[in-house]
């Protein structure tokens, strides 16, 4: 089973969604983790839109990448540019794959209503789901996957 870390800036939204989708869709082939180069707590909108899709991420928690220093990952997927630029070195032979997604909180800042804000989270949630559905095959390709 492949050990995959989804790494983001604050481990509050995109990386949490990716971990949730991997656990939901790929638990037979991927042991999923998420972390951040900082910790910002769980984003309640991310939790809500994942629940709408039938994926419960309430048992996950925001953690700093250092908390997983003893885990030997096969792959580290950076889901934002900041995480890619700040990506630490990992034990073993972890291959780093950069697959950025838009930041839902940033997109939602301009929203005129709560529903409009949530639509940004839903769009990114679905993009992450579609990407995770291609795993692990997409990881075993030549790096960046679009």
TrEMBL record:
Designated gene of the protein: arsC2
PANTHER family in UniProt: ARSENATE REDUCTASE (PTHR43428:SF1)
Name of the protein: Arsenate-mycothiol transferase ArsC2
All residue ranges annotated as the Phosphotyrosine protein phosphatase I domain in the record: 2-138
GO molecular function: mycothiol-arsenate ligase activity
SUPFAM superfamilies reported for this sequence: Phosphotyrosine protein phosphatases I (SSF52788)
Native source species: Botrimarina colliarenosi
Keyword Transferase part of the UniProt annotation: yes
Keyword list, A-Z: Arsenical resistance, Transferase
Transmembrane segments: none
GO biological process: response to arsenic-containing substance
């Amino acid at each position: 089973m492949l050990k995959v870390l989804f790494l983001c800036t604050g481990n509050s939204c995109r990386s949490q969604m990716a971990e949730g989708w991997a656990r939901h869709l790929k638990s037979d082939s991927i042991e999923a983790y998420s972390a951040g180069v900082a910790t910002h707590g769980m984003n309640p909108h991310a939790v809500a839109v994942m629940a709408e899709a039938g994926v419960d991420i309430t048992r996950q928690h925001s953690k700093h990448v250092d908390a997983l220093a003893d885990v030997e990952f096969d792959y580290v997927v950076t889901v934002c540019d900041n995480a890619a630029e700040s990506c630490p070195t990992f034990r073993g032979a972890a291959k780093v794959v950069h697959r950025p997604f838009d930041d839902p909180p940033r997109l939602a800042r301009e929203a005129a209503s709560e529903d409009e804000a949530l639509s940004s989270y839903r769009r990114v949630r679905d993009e992450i789901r579609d990407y995770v559905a291609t795993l692990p095959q997409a990881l075993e390709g030549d790096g960046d996957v679009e």
